[in-house]
Amino acid sequence: MVSRLGDLAASVGAELRGDPDLRISGVGTLSGATSGQISFLTNPKYRHYLADTKASAVILSAEYAEHCHAAVVISDNPHLAYARIAAQLFPPARFEPGRHPSAVVDESAAVDASAWIGPCAVVGADVMIGAGVYIGPGCVIEPGCKIAAGSRLVARVTLCRDTELGERCLIHPGAVLGADGFGLANDQGRWEKVPQLGRVRVGKRVEIGANTTIDRGALDDTVLADGVKLDNLIMIAHNVQVGEDTAMAGLSGVAGSTRIGRGCTFGGASGVVGHIKIGDNVHFSGQALVTRSFEQPGYYSSGLPATENSAWKRAVARIRHLDDFAKRLKQLEKQVKELLGNVSQPKD
Amino acid sequence: MVSRLGDLAASVGAELRGDPDLRISGVGTLSGATSGQISFLTNPKYRHYLADTKASAVILSAEYAEHCHAAVVISDNPHLAYARIAAQLFPPARFEPGRHPSAVVDESAAVDASAWIGPCAVVGADVMIGAGVYIGPGCVIEPGCKIAAGSRLVARVTLCRDTELGERCLIHPGAVLGADGFGLANDQGRWEKVPQLGRVRVGKRVEIGANTTIDRGALDDTVLADGVKLDNLIMIAHNVQVGEDTAMAGLSGVAGSTRIGRGCTFGGASGVVGHIKIGDNVHFSGQALVTRSFEQPGYYSSGLPATENSAWKRAVARIRHLDDFAKRLKQLEKQVKELLGNVSQPKD
Amino acid sequence: MVSRLGDLAASVGAELRGDPDLRISGVGTLSGATSGQISFLTNPKYRHYLADTKASAVILSAEYAEHCHAAVVISDNPHLAYARIAAQLFPPARFEPGRHPSAVVDESAAVDASAWIGPCAVVGADVMIGAGVYIGPGCVIEPGCKIAAGSRLVARVTLCRDTELGERCLIHPGAVLGADGFGLANDQGRWEKVPQLGRVRVGKRVEIGANTTIDRGALDDTVLADGVKLDNLIMIAHNVQVGEDTAMAGLSGVAGSTRIGRGCTFGGASGVVGHIKIGDNVHFSGQALVTRSFEQPGYYSSGLPATENSAWKRAVARIRHLDDFAKRLKQLEKQVKELLGNVSQPKD
Hints:
Keywords (chains A, B, C): Acyltransferase, Hydrolase, Lipid A biosynthesis, Lipid biosynthesis, Lipid metabolism, Repeat, Transferase
Oligomer: homotrimer
Shape of chain A: flat
GO biological process, one term (chains A, B, C): lipid A biosynthetic process
Distance between the termini of chain A: 91 Å
Subunit structure (chains A, B, C): Homotrimer.
CATH topology of the largest domain in chain A: UDP N-Acetylglucosamine Acyltransferase, domain 1
Function (chains A, B, C): Catalyzes the N-acylation of UDP-3-O-acylglucosamine using 3-hydroxyacyl-ACP as the acyl donor. Is involved in the biosynthesis of lipid A, a phosphorylated glycolipid that anchors the lipopolysaccharide to the outer membrane of the cell.
Strand order of the largest sheet of chain A: 8-11-14-17-20-25-28-31-34-37-39
Number of strands of chain A: 40
InterPro entries (chains A, B, C): Hexapep (IPR001451), LpxD (IPR007691), Trimer_LpxA-like_sf (IPR011004), UDP_GlcNAc_AcTrfase_non-rep (IPR020573)
Largest interface: A-B, 77 and 73 residues
Strand content of chain A: 25-35%
Number of domains of chain A: 3
């Protein structure tokens, strides 16, 4: 799609310094863009590329405008302006409504006429599929699911029984929503399954990454609120609640019944134990192990950075002896105090 | 399904205090249950809900019976009693035997007449499928697999060549059993594949979570014994053996050839190195890194709990200097010892 | 397949001590092999099995030859020799070219006559599939993908739009290549999607494990070079570049835009942050958290080994107080220095 630069700038409420009639047909990095493309600067460490970029226009904040010889689109939030301009230049692939002949759709399913059911997709009894929904190839939608308008299941997504998706969700391949939670009762060493009777309910504008799994609730539902963004290979256990606009990076996991607030972020491979409460705007760095409730906004960590192997081995050995260190330190303090007493007394 | 309360209590060998003719049609949490539902108390911190619960009956241990105004079902193991009662109220969805017209079943496959092969499922040559087996939509069963009676593959499960499943297994969507193990030989920096010639053999009553992967053995088989329970997104490498009734939480991984005993538990995101031996009844907490054999029953950990970021950064910096700390501590001890000698000598 | 031992030894350039006309029909471990099978010794700790092995031949290095009563195939790299001999005895399953009637192949796709498209596989518009490619059951190949000669997608693999695979790649079930990267711009607390416009490009001889996910680039491509080997459940984020012959064990993750060199190895559950650079021949052990660039070859770690729970809890508590320890240690050093001054002065 080709757009006038003036129209693009206006669409995001940005100031344009340059020719509004320039034709923009693509996007590129500052160093890689070619004529006809628009680029952006969000990370100051790349600002030296401004002088030589071949982009026809650059989205940036006002302070860098003078360093750029190309047309500039000035925004307080260049990343956001870029996202919106790129979305106009590259809208999601359109599709014809209908269903592929190889799709298997139960006759009791209510599929909106503007939706698409792709090849080898399977849609069960009593499923409700809203306007403009895209069900990609190989998806499995079990009985009783509801998918609201504008949602897109890319390919090979599984929604187990009674899962509900809000409007404009985007679910990537291999994601599984509504599989049984990991509920086990122990009978003298032998595990017995606890029926998982809740559902998964997902709000609007939720994005779920490839091969991520969201388990159904044991009794109550597992709930992802509006605007939640989950990366790939994430595990959300039964009865977890995730608040609005919380984002989680890949390979993170949240154990059962934990409640997470709004606007939180979790670095990759974070692990959250069950039955705790995370407040709003709480942020964890990668590989953090979250073992208790964190109600206050803030930044929290526990990951240890990798270092040279032999030095690391020595440090690990010392960690084991910290208890001993502490005792020896205390003993020394006592001895030195006595010595100070002895030494100073003679001076009195 | 609606049941008499008396029948439910009797079915789990529990004492009923209340009207045996009450009709129970559902389950709920103590705080959320409504009339006609049965609830349970297993976590003492919820006991204050007993006074006000609207549940018609509550499963609990004897000590809490007097605090509950509803009918009580008294059990030494309320969680287990609940699991069994819930399983009666909500039996697994029944299915008609047969095969969906869109399923692709090799003519050499031996499929029991009471089994179901779902839409778009693919069953290869020489597969054996036992009585009452449910193969959900989109499953792929490669040639030579054997699936024993009563097992259920929910949807989009892959069993690679020659995988064997015991009776009454439950495999959740996206799980992959029998993919090649990660076997590589190095030829002057270039990796060459080592053929993976073993199988995956799974015992009875094994549950495998969504998107979990169990690799086939390199030479011998990878083996999950009866009653093993695996959560989502777990990785079991080639030649691993997992003993009876061992349970593992999500995102855990076990490297090649490790042998794990019976009745073990692994917290989420545990990582176990290869070629070691874990005994029976060994328990690891979340994010534990298991680097050596643990033969003795017990509880083991290595995860570091998340804490406030700036404090954490200081602690991490200190960890790197532990070796230096140790040396300085030793030096101080030596000096103080000398001082004590010097100081005390004059007293003699 | 049955082979002459002499032919097998010659095929890998190894010296044979024994009867070249022995017929070898299989492989086995030293302790498990039976007559007609060939075994190998790579780990010296198993050398005591040499005396009693029932294998007809053993691949080993020269130093162990005399301890083996069976025929020996002497190689400087027994593991590699074994891999190649096993590959001859157990070649990949052959297949007839063509397409299963249930496969859905867009008429614009260019599928080589020697390729196979399996049951319930879906191949989109403008896809190019090379000679001898195997597309297993339930795979989804979105429009514009290119798959070079000899590659094998075992089952239920997803390649999203415009993904490119080089020759002789092997992709295991559930893997997802080319799903959107996790690109989000923040609009006053609300996330907005950044279009992901790059592709995934994979070189030759790349193996990708079950349920591993490789995201497409945001602008530039995500690139796996020739010979990269990825285990199961790995997450490679957008714009990552992985160099030739680098291998990564299961449950590892690499965040966006990180560049990794050649010949690196990553232990299981390693986590690498975004926007850093890892040089050639850099090696990380399991659960390492890689938070900065590592340009020098070497071995690096940060994982903490699991230990007995109560001891661990004490060590964790001490870690939190390391800052306090450091201050007390410094204070003691100062005091002891003063004391030494005081004590020694009288000696002057």
